[in-house]
Amino acid sequence: MKKITALAAALVLCAAHASAYENSYAGYSVKDGQPYYKLEAKKVYAYTNISSKKAYQNEEDLKNTAVNIVNYYTAEDMEQILGEKFSTAYFDAEYEKLALLERSQLNLKTVPAPLLELDKYAEHDSNGNLTIQSKVLKEKLEKLTPLIKTGKIAGKKAITISYLYKQGDVLVKIDTSLVSANDRLYLLSTVNTDQDLYAPKKDEKDADTDADIDDIDTDEESDENDEAKTEPKNAASVKKEMEKALEVENVFVRDVPAETMQRFDKAHTDLLKGFKAFAPTSTPKAISFTDAAAGKSVQLPDDWFYGQLNLKYKDKGTFYLTLASSMKEMQEVAANTDYDSVYSVLAIPQADPEYQKKVTELYSSGARNVLQHWNHLLITASVDNITDAEIKELLSTPVANRLAVESFISEGLQRLKGFSNEYFALKDYKTNFDFTQEKALIGINADTDLLKDFAYNNKILLSCNQKAATAMLFIKKTDVETEKALEQQLNEWHF
Question: For the chain, how far is it from start to end, CA to CA, in angstroms?
Answer without folding.
Answer: 43
